[in-house]
Amino acid sequence: MIILGIDPGLAHTGWGIIETKGSVCRARAYGCITTHAAESLDRRLGSIYDGIEQAICTYAPAEVAIEKIFFGENTASAIATAHARGAALVACARAGIVLGEYTPMQIKQAVVGTGSADKRQVIYMVRTILKLDHDPRPDHCADALAAAICHHNAQSTQRLAYKSASVQMLEQLTAQQAYERTLAREHTQAATQAHADYAHGKGNVMNKTRQSRRNSS
């Protein structure tokens, strides 16, 4: 499966493409879309849209992972990131790609093993997981690749959970069918025994007793 990861930002939007086969992940490409403060907002967002659309057209990802916005103390920065994120999402939506959204903490947890990891640790683990011979630069590219890895891990976990649930349901169905077969055999055996008893004059004893009482009265 080919997954596109996106680290949105108005000045720098990182993107990364990974290809997965089973549990193995490999990087196919990555890049960073840079816009400048001197440009108007619409042109900056247009550049982000065009850059993501080009990556989608070139590598045809089946799914996309994008980082959620962290609303910290810098509200202006969060709003700018939200603009960039919106432009990237529109490009993905127009391509009809399955979307996964993850917080920075979720991405760090998936890649490094702790949600408090720093940039250096993320870059190192991305390089290690994807078996790169260099650090992916700039940092936005590493973050985008990390988002794609996080999505792959989340999807793999979901598939395993679904498979486990399916196995459990199958086991329950098998047990229910076995129980119903046992009941059916017991009913059949009881009916056969009753028929045999009746054939040997052992059946309807209660009815005969009631009939004899009526005759004697």
How would you describe what is shown here?
The protein has 217 residues and is an alpha/beta fold. Helix content is 61%, strand content 17%. The chain contains 6 helices and 5 strands; from the N terminus they run βββαβαβαααα. It has a 5-stranded mixed sheet. α2 links the parallel β4 (63-67) and β5. α4 (119-129) crosses α5. The longest helix is centred in the C-terminal third of the chain and has 61 residues, at 139-199. The chain is elongated, with a radius of gyration of 33 Å. The model has no long low-confidence stretch (mean pLDDT 86).
Summarize the entry for a quick read:
It contains six helices and five strands, in the order βββαβαβαααα. It is an alpha/beta fold.
Could you list the spans in which at least 5 consecutive residues all have pLDDT below 50? Answer: none
- What is the succession of H and E elements? EEEHEHEHHHH
Main structural class: alpha/beta
The amount of helix comes to: 55-70%
Q: Describe the strand arrangement of the main beta sheet, using strand numbers.
A: 3-2-1-4-5
Largest sheet: 5 strands, mixed
Apparent shape: elongated
Distance between the termini: 89 Å
Strand content: 15-25%
Number-wise, the strands total 5
Mean pLDDT, to the nearest integer, reads 86
Number of helices: 6
Binding site for Mg(2+) 1: 7, 140
Region (Disordered): 186-217
Subcellular location: Cytoplasm
Cofactor: Mg(2+)
